[in-house]
Amino acid sequence: MPRSHDDEAANGAVSRPGQVVDSPRSLLIVLVLSVVLFQRIGVPLGGFGQVPVALLAPLTLLGYGLASGLVVPDRTRMRLYVTGTGTLVLLTLIALARGQRPSLLSVMFLVAIYAFATVRVPALTTADVEAVLDVVVRVMLIAGCVGLLQMAVQLLGVPYEDWPARAVPASILIEGYNTGDPIHYGSPYYRSNGIAFLEPSFLSYFLGLACVIALHRSRSMLVISVLLLSLLPTLAGNGVVVLLAGVAVMLLSKRRRRLKVLVPPVGLAVCLAVITPLGSTFVGRATEVSEQGSSSSLRLVEPYVRVMPATLDDLPALLLGAGAGAATDFLDSLGIDGLLAPVVPKLLMEYGVVGALLFLLFLLWCLCAGALTAERPWGVGLLFNYLLLNAALLQETIALTTIFFLVLLRTDREDPSLMYRGPAGPPEGAVEAP
Amino acid sequence: MSQPEGAEAKEAVSDERLNRPTAVDGQNMSLDPLEAVAASWRLIVVIALLGALCLALLYALTSDRYSSSTTILFRSGDPSSLVGTLPTGFGSGNSDRALNTQADVILSDAVVEPAARAVGSTASAVRRSIEVETGIDSDVLTLSGQANTASGAQRLTAALADAYVSLNRQEGVRFLETQAEALQAPIASLTARLDALTVAGSVTPADESRRAALVVQLTELTQEQERLRTNAEIYAGQVVVLSAADKPDIPSSPSPTLGAVQGAALSIVLGVLLALARALGGKRLRSGPRSVRRSRDSDGRRAYVGRVHATKS
User: Fold this and answer.
1) pTM of this prediction?
2) Which residue of A has its CA nearest to B12?
3) What ipTM, to 2 d.p.?
4) Are residues A280 and A408 in contact, defined by beta-carbon separation less than 8 angstroms?
5) CATH class of residue range B63-243
């Protein structure tokens, strides 16, 4: 059914013929889809690695948004960004002057990724936010079904194959991820990654997010059941963390009644988990935190135990940092497979105390306001995933998704840093549209 | 055209319902990052040139450093299993762990001190100048040594590799010799028992059978001891130098040109951030055309799109 002029106006959009992205709603939809769907594609830079399309496309959209006025800078966040990233760039220059070998690409990535946290979408309405959320749920429903199909096909005897690796030149596929990952060593069955996702854990992460959104948006039991079931063949905990955190937040809010819809699909998922080996794998992963060398331990314990002493023992490094990229190099040099550098130890080791504190102030200012609210039950889970579970500081998919859902997908009315003045006249000199 | 009071109230209510910002904080709308950068382009150019110049100058004044490297294959396993053969692919169960242990061994005093003596330096200075890299899914170690001259770097790396190979061989030889020595006690015991039987001069069939068994055991142990001693003499160690330390042609330290490029790149970013900071500080608020358009939908509600530029205050 064609949309009426009233609908357009209600969306805060004024149609611009010939432009695909002509409203905050379409800008945000294209942005989130580019982050979710292009995460495996990169532009090769010769010997300097790859630049992910999941960063290039959003950057282009950000530039377009700023030029067209769909997106405007937030002064408070911009001040904190300029202070934080400016300090980090300065510290990188100092590191070069000290004869260290910081990764310039690393600091450039950081400057680029976090520019997204400095802007807001002034004409965004609640209806726009809901529309974007619904698109995310629909896309993840499709991705979840693809993941289920991937596992079903394997169970029918067709061996796993990474289709994009056959269809696309290897140089433009992002490297360094466990895209095809067997359920356990030597198993013929591979965890589902939904074809388009970097790893099964990324599919799980987005499915968990979509599940919380679906609960928040009171989607049907069928939708929630499919999303929950799709989590199983990923065998990853990221989505479960987002989901559990979201459910916990909703339990504490007025929306707790919406959780009733969870009971049948969770029961079904538990039954499936009990009668298949998937359940024991999940339980094993959930209780492995204290085990040295386990996936959880490598994310939640080991990085701090390894990085903190190396940083604290060296006073110049503690004050000025060891240079961009040093934390990753240090952890790689330990030769421990799966050891990640979460946000805080990475910032502390690479940029020292002052740089880390200033940048963390910017990060927490931007993200916490969007995370710690019952209006966005996915916030706490995304924040936990971003800060603790993943090496997310420069992982564009996780970082941009976190920024998108906690910062960009916020109407001005929800932004505590803005002084809403209420209905008033247009800004001085504004031109009335024809 | 002025609206009646009732219409204004209705509009406010409808805006509230739609959660649309009807008036945007003027402070927030005053910053256009693209224009802020364009307005401060001279500042950005000056900072970029300064950064490039400073870093290039610094690199030009800093003495060159040369880096030499050598690759070493580590074959894990019992030394006695390696004698006389060069196995190409055997697993120790945890190859990464074995290789990381070897990296620590290379950085230990047992290797660094002989290497330091060989190049006439101190252990701490050598330790600061070397790097050990372990390959992923590989049994190859890469040693790199740095010095102020190309030949110095080559000498340091070669000395380190020699010290490591030598230590590894000595450890293996000691292991084999210890095993051979451990056989000496049972050999002596068997010899004594054989001597006792000979002295007793007994000729019963049972004695003959015991004597023959003792001779067989003694022969086996003596042969095993001989084998271990021979192996100790020919043992080459668990490590094989795959490529000798090379003599670098060019310094590994960054050149002034690279410094200029790096300095300029980072300084441009810094300049852009400073330009934004200037604009945020209110020193570069522009006057110019306001491009905000006001549209009115069929219900008379207003929606603003486009950019607003603040006037100079």
Assistant:
1) 0.74
2) A423
3) 0.78
4) no
5) alpha beta
